[in-house]
Design brief:
Layout: E1 19-21, H1 24-27, H2 43-55, H3 58-61, E2 65-67, H4 93-103, E3 107-113, H5 129-138, E4 143-147, H6 156-170, E5 175-178, H7 193-197, E6 202-204, H8 213-225, H9 227-230, E7 239-241, H10 254-266, E8 271-273, H11 282-288, H12 291-297, E9 306-310, E10 314-325, E11 328-337, E12 344-349, E13 359-363, E14 369-373, E15 378-383, E16 387-395
Parallel strand pairs: 1-8, 2-3, 3-4, 4-5, 5-6, 6-7
Antiparallel strand pairs: 9-10, 10-11, 11-16, 12-15, 13-14, 13-16
Helix pairs in contact: 2-4, 5-6, 10-11, 10-12
Length: 417
Amino acid sequence: MLGTRKWACTNTADGMDELAKLFRTAFYCETDCAKHPRACINEQLYMDMADRLAEDGYRDAGYNRVHVDDCWMEFSRDAQGILVANQSRFPTGIKGLAKYMHDRNLGFAIYEDYGTLTCGGYPGSLGYLRTDAETFAAWDVDYLKLDGCYVDEDLMPIGYPQMERELNRTGRPIVYSCSWPAYLIDHPEKVDYSEISRSCNLWRNFDDISSSWKSIQSIIFYYDKMQDKHIPTHGPGHWHDPDMLVIGNDGITADMARAQMTIWSIWSAPLIMSNDLRTIKQEFRDILINKDVIAIDQDPMGIMGRLVVNTSVLGVYVKPITPVVGQHTSYAIAVLNRDLSSQQKFQFTLQQLGLPNSYNTIELWTKENLGLLGPSSFIRGQLGPTSAALYRLLLNDGRNMLETNRVPLYGNSIIYG
């Protein structure tokens, strides 16, 4: 994660959006280390990835935490009710693994579940919230993801805030990621993001991602549909989490990778990789560590960009970013071609998107400098299938501020094709 601003809730000191490394989509819950020595859930896997983050430029780009997901435990607690790491796969123990991360200037994240069991069938935290919070603090954990399997969803408004209080009680800064709304997809009337954001720093709210364009696109469709509910409740200390970056995995092309990175960044979404950094190709590494794109994601205002133009295959998103002069912001614009097979041309003026001033404009993937653009200037381009463009428009040194009636960017009128 980047930055040092205070979170809105829990006792952690990080207020910027999440950049990290998680393993679920790449390695799932493989525990047979004899059969899969380089792909099983064990401490060596996490140590290997930490080394790659530290040595291959990812940490310098902002990816500064390693996440352990499900299946790290023994199937039973010890006699005192304390969670125990699987002794054959994690012989150093969780505290030792956290130290390995900290020695490399990386944070350490761990997984649990609010229910009686985790999704993988390991001991859950129901009935042990205080014990587990104290255990994670004693192990020097920096981040907790609390899943929601094997529990009555009506208990979630009680249990997730209770775990927040228990984490705070330890006195250790621990980022708190909740899966609370993800289990209420079929009951949207029960999802109150203002309530959730009072306890959780970030939260999942849709299906798990897989390494396919169909999966990425389904998340984009859901977030587009829900943007009027998401945008007002998204920002520093309280983030909607559309799930992991699957960039570098089989089934994902370079164009798909740039598209996912573009849309996640226009949303100010957590950037949490799930891939194998030991074998990733250079072109995907370059996409993941594009610092200009990451800067859009990590913009200090933390605003979620809005879909403002939508046809059957193209979407145009606008996001206010810094620098800000008076009441005027700079902007990022993303253009997405969702189609699997055809190229798409696009053109629009800044005024059509509600941008009234003059901006120094650059496309962040190709580094094409479009120069100084005003309200009547066109942005034109052509996108291949499942690809995207991302433009950064910086205010022209505070000059040419036009006091016009702006097209509202955050109203409810969206053009559907």
